[in-house]
């Protein structure tokens, strides 16, 4: 079958992206699903900073690439050996296919699935296949097993979480990355306790989700830090009790003052070593710093090493919110249904597929939390 998709042919192009057009809309051939694979009609796909990192070359992937890793849609066909999904089911994608068999999966750490990681790096689906091709037969790579910037895609069954259809897909899509990563970092990685002070540095879709997760976990105070005034206002709507604008106040000093010594847990959702160092400095003795953002591989972090031992400080990473998607996406959706995660507030605007480059311009300028490409599914 044919599908229109946003294809990345060259990395490292500078903004503005609407002018340089690193993503080109192409009509591609999409082969049908093979064993343990599923054809999905995409209803919505989110623009995430991780996608932007691929475009600007910070996180290189094999090209040409059908981009997009946060998506939701409707099952249209299933391949052999898929017996727990059927056409018409609503699904949210997981950008790490969880094989269920490797050492990480069997120990409950599906977000670090070894086979899923290997497939993602290779630009294939979980079993090594590629389903997108051009008219001349050239195969294109899949982005994290999702390739959500396409009208249709084929994914491994292990990349999909079936969800109930009471949540609109343009909202459900946000659970595939922003919510899973941000809320998961709070409840899975950090295990934030009620009544403890939390700080969140960086208020994109993931950082705002961490704010929501901290509110749902009963943290207090919840201090949000960002350089954009509008995002600070949005953070208040998502559950922040206090906000800090770095150009007016020193975040570390302000957080220590508000918390009488420092945050119990600080989350860094910017993806920059300097901000991660600030987050660490803003915690108290015995505190925990959780790195959610993905810095450029060339960045290095410098800390006072003795503080880790003498003050029992912790610095931990959180990839995909330490989530097991089939377990965590449904339970986070239950929190949304209960009114504890106002996920709809993350969505800044909707775009057509043809507007994808200008959408990344807005993301690069820091103007938006989450933009969603809408398809007619």
Outline the structure in words.
It is a single chain. This protein has helices at 17-20, 49-55, 103-106, 114-122, 169-172, 178-190, 205-216, 229-238, 251-259, 273-281, 305-310, 325-337, 356-364, and strands at 2-8, 23-30, 37-47, 65-66, 70-78, 90-93, 132-133, 139-142, 152-156, 160-163, 198-201, 222-225, 242-244, 263-268, 283-291, 314-317, 347-351, 370-374. The chain has two domains: 2-176 and 342-374, Medium-chain alcohol dehydrogenases, catalytic domain (Quinone Oxidoreductase, Chain A, domain 1); 179-319, NAD(P)-binding Rossmann-like Domain (Rossmann fold, 3-Layer(aba) Sandwich). The chain is globular and about 65 Å long. The longest helix has 13 residues, at 178-190. The chain has 13 helices and 18 strands. The two termini are 16 Å apart. Helix 6 crosses helix 12. The chain has 377 residues and is of the alpha/beta class. The strands form three sheets. Strands 3, 5, 6, 9, 10, 17 and 18 form a seven-stranded mixed beta sheet that branches. Strands 13-12-11-14-15-16 form a six-stranded parallel beta sheet, sandwiched between helices. A five-stranded mixed barrel has the order 1-2-7-8-4.
Q: What structural class should be given to the helix and strand makeup?
A: alpha/beta
Radius of gyration, Cα only, in angstroms?
Answer: 20 Å
User: Which regions contain 5 or more consecutive residues with pLDDT less than 50?
Assistant: none
- Portion in beta strands: 25-35%
The gist of it:
The chain is of the alpha/beta class. It contains 13 helices and 18 strands. It has two domains: 208 residues, Medium-chain alcohol dehydrogenases, catalytic domain (Quinone Oxidoreductase, Chain A, domain 1, Alpha-Beta Complex); 141 residues, Rossmann fold (3-Layer(aba) Sandwich).
């Amino acid at each position: 079958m044919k599908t229109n998709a946003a294809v990345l042919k060259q990395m490292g192009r500078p903004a503005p992206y609407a002018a340089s057009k690193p993503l080109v809309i192409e009509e591609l051939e999409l082969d049908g699903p093979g064993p343990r694979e599923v054809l999905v009609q995409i209803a919505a796909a989110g623009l995430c900073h991780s996608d932007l990192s691929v475009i600007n070359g910070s996180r290189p992937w094999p090209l040409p690439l059908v981009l997009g890793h946060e998506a939701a849609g409707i099952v249209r066909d299933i391949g052999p050996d898929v017996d727990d999904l059927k056409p018409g089911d609503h699904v949210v994608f997981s950008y790490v296919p969880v094989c269920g068999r490797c050492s990480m999966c069997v120990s409950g750490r599906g977000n670090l699935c070894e086979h899923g990681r290997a497939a993602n790096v290779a630009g294939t689906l979980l079993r090594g296949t590629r389903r997108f091709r051009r008219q001349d037969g050239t195969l294109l790579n899949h982005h994290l097993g999702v390739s959500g910037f396409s009208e249709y895609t084929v994914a491994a069954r292990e990349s999909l979480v079936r969800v109930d259809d009471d949540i609109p897909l343009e909202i459900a899509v946000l659970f595939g990355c922003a919510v899973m990563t941000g809320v998961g970092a709070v409840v899975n990685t950090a295990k934030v306790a009620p009544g403890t002070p939390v700080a969140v540095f960086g208020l994109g879709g993931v950082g705002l989700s961490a704010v929501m997760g901290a509110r749902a976990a009963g943290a207090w105070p919840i201090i949000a830090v960002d350089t954009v005034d509008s995002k600070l206002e949005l953070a208040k709507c998502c559950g922040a009790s206090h906000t800090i604008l770095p150009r007016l106040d020193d975040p570390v000093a302000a957080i220590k003052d508000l918390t009488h010594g420092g945050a119990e847990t600080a989350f860094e959702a910017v993806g920059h070593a300097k901000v991660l160092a600030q987050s660490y400095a803003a915690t108290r003795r015995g505190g925990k710093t959780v790195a959610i953002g993905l810095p450029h591989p060339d960045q290095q972090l410098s800390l006072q090493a003795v503080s880790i031992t003498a003050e029992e400080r912790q610095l931990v990473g959180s990839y995909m919110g330490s989530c097991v998607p089939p377990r965590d996406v449904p339970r986070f959706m239950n929190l949304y249904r209960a009114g504890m995660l106002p996920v709809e507030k993350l969505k800044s605007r909707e775009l057509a597929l043809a507007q994808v480059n200008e959408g990344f311009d807005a993301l690069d300028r820091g103007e938006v939390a989450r933009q969603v490409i809408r398809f007619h599914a």
